[in-house]
Structure formats: structure tokens, C-alpha cells
Amino acid sequence: MNMALARGKALPARWLCGLLGVAWLGASHAALTDNLGTSVKAMSMGNAVTADPPGVDSIHFNPAGLSRLEGNVKQDNFFGASIRIKANFHQPDGFDIGDWKQDPLAGSTSGPVRQKIYLPGIGLPKWSLPAAMGAGMGFSFNRPGSPWTFATAAYVPQAVGVDRSSDPNDPTRFDGRSVTLQRLVYLSPSVAYKVNDTLSVGLAVPIAHQSFALDTDMRFPNKLLGIIGKLQDAWCGDGGNPLDEFGFGLCGGGKEGRLRPFNRAGTMKFDMTAPLDPTYNVGLLWEPKDWFAFGAVYQSGSKTTLTGRYTFMADPMFPRFVQGMYGSLLGPVVASMFGFFPARLQAGIKLKPFSRLQLNMDAMYTDWSKWDKLEIQFDRQVALLQMARIFGQSDASKLVIPRNYRDPIHFGFGLELGVTRGFKLRYGYEPRKTSVPQSAFDLIAPLPTMTVRSLGAGYESPSGLKIDATYSYAKGRYNIPADTSCSLNCTNFFNVIYNPYAGLDVSGSITVRYGGMSIAKPF
């Protein structure tokens, strides 16, 4: 993913902000679950619906399924979702960050979590909610007897909004006090063509508003910084050292320039959008028998360039240290010596062994491995990368961040039971494999492998009115021992960006609850 930052004066703060923002953005994308909450009916069937596409929601799951809609149909969707994240921080035996032996976050636990949503054209509101609420709408158009069906809809294929700001001392504030990543499809021109009585094909072009907002504190518990801080204490003493003028400038920043690995280094706010980001979905539906159907869909990926604004407020420690270092004679020599939406493929079958019993199964593949790295290309050479050069960032106009995501393949299962002529009960089961390996795990969007279970019901009246409702629940746990994720808790000298919990064991859980209702009727 390439991201061109807005032109302007290149400062070290801007460089650091851009680096962290894009690194977190990539992590948030990869941790997002696919199709979680996109369709009420699909959720109730474990998202195993490519062979039984759900009404107007076929635009997303298999646009060929639009050919099953006769006449003109209007569909309204309403939903609510909550994400609750818990994190525990444990300091193992032998903990040592550059001769600093005690992390003040050791033994702490994260606090309350609320939800946030991004309002296109307005931005991120200051208020938060106990659950994210939303609505969508779709229309399909078919002339009786015509093989063509046209449709469009507004829906949310991605949404994560986590706010952990109610407790100002929450330990997770260093890996995202508030994180919102949202993809809102506001227009999706679609068409399906019924080739014959058993075969249909379809194409949809969702046009989306992509947004990303981040508000976080930052700290850099790194061994090299810890060693430098101890050297400052020994070399500078309480009143400085006059010999430092001819040395490396360790004392030039005064007491405020003493490096402390566990102190807050600064705060950052990041708000970026891509208001016009199109993709496409291509689908096929084959229904040779009443009791059997096969469906497949390919959803293209997106390489979005996000633009926006950001604010970086540095605490005195780093600026004072850098100022002192570059004010000395030998400082520059020491420094220079060191020198959003992936493609998806989903296919499945529908079986009806009995007239009132239907079984669905889908296989789902997501191409996350193309995010093996993230590249940041600045509009010019950044003149002052004081801290970055210490850690090996030699090119002042380009940064490359490895991510190493995986391509998970998982299955979804759905069961539908006809209770009466117009009333059905549904059950969905979807064991989801995470796309983020343990080596890249962080707390921005910590989604481990988890299982989604759903219960739903549907009613269809003789006049064509359809009402569907579902409730879904998922929970996953994670355990990241110290030095196993270099996006979280590595202690290597050159893993300063970004390991805010270096040397700590981090464990916890995430719980997702979703409920929704859809109403479709002819018009």
C-alpha cells in the first residue's frame, strides 16, 4: 500500500506520525473480520450464502442472486454491534529494558470500552456509544419476464470503532486510545442476467467511503533508549557535564532530555479518508435442482490512497534529547553511522435433503498476504530524521514496514428449518481463522481466531413482505508472551517503532455481539 502524505513542511514529528499511522492502519485492516454484520440474513446462516444469495444483499455476497428477485423490491436494514476488548499485562521474570527493571504497567488490566462511528462529511464525533448503530437501504428493479435485474444498495462491509478513553490511565492507551476504521458503501450499481432457468451471472460495483481515525498516546520502551538514559544519568549527573560539549551531547537537553523508556513520548491524532473508492464483485449462481445449488463470488481488492489531517504532540523528552545531541560536535556523526481492502473469493453449496430443511456450506479465502509490507512515500526528503537514523531509517523520503499477513481459508455453515409455510428458523456457525500471525499481533484491532455463532428467524407473508432478524455472538482469546510480536512487545535494540509493551506478556480476549433486522417488500 502506498500512501502519499499531504505536502507541507517536513518535520520529524510528521515523519513519526505518518509512520505510526500507516503501520496501525495496516494492522487494523488485517485484523478486521470479513462480512461481519454486512447482512442480517447472511449472518444468521454463518455467511454461507453464495449458493442462496440473500435478496438485495446479493450485491455483496453474489450479485448473480439478484436474478431471483422479481418485480421491484425495497429493503431496509437496521443493526447494532458492540466490541469489548480486555487486555492484561504481566511482567515476566528477568524483565530488563536497558537496565530498567520495572514497568509501571505491569500487573494492570484494561478498562471500559465503548463504540465510535465515522460520519462521512462530518468526521469523528466526540461522543461514543455503548454499541455502534447503523442502517442501510437497497433497491432492485426487474421487469416481469425480463432476464435482467438491476439494483443498488448502501451497506457497511467493514466497521471497527473502539473507544477506550473513559479511563485516562487505561494501559491500552499506548496502542490506540480510540480507533475507528470504517468502509461505507453508499452506491453500488449492480446487474444480474438470467442465462437460462438454472444459470445466472452478476456484476456489482460498490463505491465506498473509507475512513480511518486514530487517537493514541505513545511510548518507546526500548533497550537502546534505556541504556542511553542510564548513560545520561551517569555522565551528566545533576548539573550537567562541561566535557559533554566535546562529546556526544547527551547532556545538552537538560533533565527534560533524559530518556526514560516507560515515559509517555507524545500523543497523536490521525484522521484520514478516501471518499470515492470503487471495487467490483463478480458472481455466478447455478441451480440445476430444487435440492442443490452452487454459487461463487469474487470481490476485488482496493489500493486506496487516504488523505487527511493529523496532529502530533511530543512530550519534552525526545525533542530535548535530539536538540542536545545535534547541538554537540560529534552528535551528527554518531546518528548517521546507524545510518485497505483485500480481494476475496467465496464459493458454496446449498442442499435441501427435505422440503423444510436446508443446509448451506461456504469456503472463504481472503488475499491478505499481498499486505506483506506497507510503503510510505513522502513528497520530499525529510531533512531531520534525528531519532529515525539511530534505528536504521536511512532513506528520508520512503519507509517500508513489513507486515507478513496470512491468507486464511475458513468455512461457514448455515441451517434453515421451515417451521410453518411462512416462518423459518436459522442457525449459523462460522469458525474464523485470524489473518494476523502472532508475530504481528497488536491491540489496535486484536482479533484472534474466533467462532461466530448466530441465531435467526425469517417471515414471509403472502403479499411478499419479508422480515429477517438475527443475533450473533463471538469470542476469542489471545496470549502474546514477551518478545513474540514485534508490533507489540519485542525488546530488540532496533524494534522501537512500534512495541509499546516491550518485554511484557500480553493476554486478553475480545467479544463481539451483533443484532439486526431487515425488512423487504415489493414496491
Q: Can you give keywords for this protein?
A:
single chain; 523 residues; mainly beta; Porin; 14-stranded antiparallel β-barrel; 3-stranded mixed sheet; 7 helices; 41% strand; disordered N terminus
Explain how this protein is built.
The chain has a 14-stranded antiparallel barrel. It has a three-stranded mixed sheet with strand order 1-16-17, covered by helices on one side. The chain is mostly beta strands. Helix content is 12%, strand content 41%.
In short:
This protein is mainly beta and 523 residues long. It has helices at 12-31, 40-44, 58-61, 223-236, 317-326, 331-337, 386-390, and strands at residues 2-4, 73-90, 114-115, 132-141, 148-163, 178-187, 190-194, 199-204, 207-218, 266-278, 281-289, 292-299, 307-314, 344-354, 357-366, 373-377, 398-402, 409-418, 423-432, 450-460, 466-480, 505-522. The chain has a 14-stranded antiparallel beta barrel with strand order 2-4-5-7-8-11-12-14-15-18-19-20-21-22. Strands 1-16-17 form a three-stranded mixed β-sheet, covered by helices on one side.
